[in-house]
Design brief:
The complex is a heterotrimer of chains A (662), B (103) and C (123). Chain A is α+β, with helices and mostly antiparallel strands and 662 residues long. Chain A is built from 21 helices and 13 strands. In chain A, β11 and β12 form a beta hairpin. The C terminus of chain C is likely disordered. The chains are: A alpha+beta (662), B mainly alpha (103), C alpha+beta (123).
Chain lengths: 662, 103, 123
């Protein structure tokens, strides 16, 4: 079986190399049949890679420990879903996941646009260029098909990864990361062919939106997993691997907005090229970060052998992107200028600058240890205060812009009409601010501003819907006829929910620690009293727990306050396999605050039952997860195919079919 | 495993045939030239995009005016130039269409 | 206009780093002996690991290299799930009287898999 897998990968590699070389030659020399042939090769690479993936999945399902990879990441008693998820659990498998998604996306994009011969002529070799690296690594450097004499049992999977969120989080992220390769390939393809029209944007708009949505959802899933499963009290630690996904997402957000300006006004062609290249290269960098060990993250202290390869490829792609954009600069220049600093274009531009600035400051923070090592010989790192500062400095104005943008007209908005449209949202904002100030929310200026600006944004979105509904005759009709705009508003509303949830759970959270409690004692936090219940004859406290591969304890606490009463039972699981103890946090979702009561406990003295208790009250945190759902819904609305628009685009690019997005 | 080898070989053959298909179907075509947009077609495309942009902008202006985002004054100032731009784009397009061109 | 905004962003950035200092040094047991002030100690846990009252006591050596340097760490606070001998960790604190006095709750352990979960295993 394994030799077949290796053969399938070699076949994929060969096809991809052909797509790259033959495709480039065909596009350069304008050879139709060769271009078609290269296109076929790219299409065929997908089933070849899929076959290799299927072989690995079958080996996993069969617990075939002659596959070294299967033995390293699973064990006999691992439940099937997690066994299968071990596909991406190791380095080789995650490279294969990248390649299968990439070839899959490429095949779909090529198939949908197969009649747009000229558009695809150079896009095919660019896809080949990206894929050839991963195929090469899989065939010659890091193969998932190494064989060995089968051991009695495999190494197993870390318990914290045996969690439903971990089944979805990596694939979602990869669908996002790799998805950004599609607009990149089309953009570079357009540059290589010397085209200046918008076809590449039209063809990739939904791809970008989809990839961006996957990336966002993947991050939220990861954050939720960290919050509930790891239980350190938070959901985002500014760890390099977390930042690795945030940076391309921010760049993609900027790109989604500025592409609208190019479509409406024909401006910013160079900037859009830069952004799409930035987003894709950041996603490559993100993959590299997670795999290479170059950054001293909690996830990679040691150097991995493929790090050097990845770095080489990343540098090559950056140089390739920059060189291509520079060479085609004359073609991209337009005469259109920004007419007014007070216009929707300008607002989008400010939004872009803030997003890119935030992404770059995060990048700087991630690279700082490497750079300081190289320059001063001493590794230094930055931490939460650094990231928080820039998140506030750039993020809070971004929040405000989300409310301003929709209210400003294109081209030029006179101050008078601005005054009229802004009046109600501004009033809402002021009132909210005043009320919050009175209630004492000025303990955190970041939190206060976040809430106040969120109110502004919500007001402006609601107004848009109200005004639009009157004009269109019904909300459904309104949204259906303006999917991008109103889908976008829904996404903005989701981001506002996120912002409120983040602000509430960080700026206004309360933490109590150093609580060494004996049974019967209690601890107070934010108006609640948590009592460590006395054990009785029939029910001990702490109570021992036992699972298939762990033992541990749970401490039972009763929490009262604010007219509520509930129980939490934080504890620890100690796993037999010598992996160590796992914190089992206990979370109560409080309907009163839409937040959480979060408790962790360590056993200090088993005889007396004394625990070291840490309590958090996190207001509004569940808005983050709720926002995630609205985010997906809004994105779907924005992406939804529009027959009228499709017909018009087909007529425009009248070679037979419109450049098709998904 | 022989069967594995056989499967791999079969896959490879199928793949090669698929890749060679364009050449097998047309061993001696009339033209092997990759369709490329002639300069006047590129012009037409650019003009079409310009026309669509102008028409879109008009539509949006109307919508924004109806929903009250754009005041009457602003509407009056902007609608004129936009209409002219759209008309001009349409005119240039039609002029181009009447010129015969080679594909 | 873009140039102006870029300049503004850079200005904010420069001001911040000037005021806030240059991050925290990451040191290994072999380099930490002379360190002053708050640093991050990075290394592999070696036994024995003892509980003395509230304090966790363990030693740390360089990861990878076979350097003989050892640093003894006194740590109080929550211990992350994956902590044990042989694990790579990082912990913040200061060198005091030849021992590393760790900041509470700053202990972070490395996740043992190649595959990296998206958050740190710290508590």
């Amino acid at each position: 079986m394994a030799p077949l897998g290796r053969a399938a990968l070699l076949l994929a590699f060969g096809l991809i190399v052909y797509a790259l070389l033959a495709g480039s030659y065909a596009a350069w020399r304008k050879r139709r049949r060769l271009a078609h042939s290269a296109q076929n090769a790219l299409l065929a690479a997908f089933p070849a890679t899929l076959a290799a993936s299927a072989i690995l999945l079958i080996a996993l399902a069969r617990h075939d420990f002659t596959f070294a990879y299967v033995a390293q990441h699973t064990s006999h008693n691992l439940p099937l879903p997690y066994t299968l998820s071990a596909f991406w659990g190791g380095q080789e498998g995650s490279l294969l996941l990248w390649l299968v998604i990439l070839t899959g996306y490429a095949a779909l994009a090529v198939w949908l646009n197969r009649r747009q011969r000229e558009l695809m002529a150079w896009t095919v070799p660019v896809f080949g260029l990206i894929a050839v690296f991963f195929a090469f690594m899989l065939c010659f450097v890091s193969s998932p098909f190494h064989q060995q004499p089968a051991p009695a049992d495999g190494a197993g999977m870390v318990p914290s990864l045996q969690n439903p969120y971990m089944l979805a989080h990596p694939p979602m992220l990869y669908l996002g990361y790799v998805g950004l390769a599609v607009p990149f390939a089309f953009a570079m393809g357009a540059l290589l062919s010397g085209r200046t029209d918008e076809r590449w944007i039209v063809a990739t708009r939904r791809w970008t939106l989809a990839a961006w949505t996957f990336l966002g959802v993947g991050q939220l899933l990861g954050a939720h997993w960290a919050y509930t499963e790891i239980g350190w009290g938070g959901y985002y630690a500014w760890d390099p691997v977390e930042n690795a996904a945030l940076m391309p997402w921010l760049a993609a957000t900027a790109f989604l907005h500025s592409v609208m300006i190019q479509e409406k006004r024909g401006m910013l062609k160079v900037w859009n090229m830069v952004l799409v290249a930035l987003a894709f290269n950041l996603s490559l960098f993100g993959t590299f970060l997670t795999r290479s060990g170059i950054i001293n993250s909690v996830h990679s202290f040691s150097q991995s052998p493929i790090g050097a390869w990845f770095m080489g490829f990343l540098i090559f792609m950056v140089v390739f992107s920059v060189a291509l954009i520079y060479l085609r600069l004359p073609l991209l220049r337009t005469k259109t200028r920004l007419e007014s600093l007070v216009s929707r274009e300008a607002t989008f531009l400010y939004n872009n600058l803030l997003l890119v600035a935030l992404a770059l400051t995060i990048l700087w923070g991630v690279l700082y240890p490497v750079l300081s090592e190289a320059v001063r010989g001493q590794t230094r790192s930055v931490s939460k205060p650094y990231y928080d500062f820039f998140l506030h400095t750039f993020g809070i104005p971004l929040l405000l812009l989300m409310g301003i943008g929709p209210l400003v007209a294109w081209r030029k908005a006179s101050l008078r009409s601005l005054g009229k449209t802004f009046l109600i949202p501004f009033a809402v904002c002021l009132v909210t601010g005043g009320v919050l100030l009175g209630l004492g929310f000025d303990s955190s200026w970041a939190g206060l501003l976040s809430y106040t600006f969120s109110a502004f944004v919500v007001a402006s979105i609601v107004l848009e819907f109200v005004r639009g509904r009157a004009a269109a005759g019904g909300v459904f009709r309104l949204v259906s006829r303006n999917r991008r705009r109103y889908g976008g508003y829904l996404v903005h509303a989701a981001i506002v929910l996120l912002a409120i949830g983040i602000a509430g759970s960080s700026a206004y959270q309360t933490i109590r620690e150093n609580g060494h409690l004996r049974p019967g004692q209690s601890m107070e936090i934010a108006g609640y009293t948590a009592t460590y219940r006395q054990p009785t004859a029939t029910s001990p406290n702490p109570i021992g727990v036992k699972g298939p591969d762990y033992t541990g304890f749970r401490s039972q606490l009763t929490v009262t306050g604010h007219g509520e009463s509930f129980n939490v039972d934080p504890g620890v699981n100690v796993y037999d396999a010598g992996i160590g103890p796992a914190n089992e946090a206990s979370i109560y979702h409080d309907p009163r605050t839409l937040g959480d009561f979060f408790a962790t406990a360590q056993l200090v003295n088993a005889k007396t039952g004394t625990i070291d208790l840490k309590l958090y009250v996190k207001p509004l945190i569940n808005l983050i997860w709720a926002g995630g759902f609205l985010f997906v819904f809004g994105a779907l609305v924005a992406m939804w195919p529009d027959a009228v628009e499709q017909r018009r685009l087909a007529a425009r690019y009248a070679t037979g079919a419109a450049p098709a997005g998904i | 495993m022989e069967w594995g080898l056989a499967v791999a070989a079969a896959l490879a053959v199928v793949a090669v045939m698929f890749v060679a298909r364009p050449f097998l179907r047309e061993p001696a075509p009339a033209s092997d030239q990759l369709d490329e947009l002639a300069p006047e077609e590129r012009q037409r495309l650019a003009l079409t995009e310009e026309r669509d942009r102008a028409l879109d902008a008009l539509k949006e202006l109307e919508f924004d005016h109806r929903t009250g985002k754009v005041s009457d004054d602003d509407y009056r100032t902007q609608v004129g130039p936009l209409r002219r731009r759209a008309a001009e784009a349409l005119r240039t397009l039609e002029a181009g269409e009447h010129t015969p061109h080679e594909r | 206009m873009i140039a102006l905004s870029v300049a503004a962003a850079l200005a904010i950035f420069v001001v911040y780093t000037a005021l806030a200092g240059n991050g925290v040094a990451q040191l290994t047991p072999s380099t930490i002996a002379t360190a002053k002030g708050n640093v991050l100690l990075v290394g592999k846990v070696v036994g024995p690991v003892e509980h003395v009252g509230d304090t966790l006591r363990f030693a740390v050596k360089d990861i990878g290299d076979k350097k003989p340097a050892r640093v003894s760490v006194d740590y109080a606070g929550s211990v992350p799930s994956l902590f044990r001998t042989g694990r790579d960790i990082s912990v913040a604190g200061v060198m005091r009287h030849g021992r590393f006095a760790a900041t509470k709750d700053s202990l972070i352990t490395k996740c043992p898999d190649h595959y990296a979960p998206p958050a740190s295993s710290k508590t």
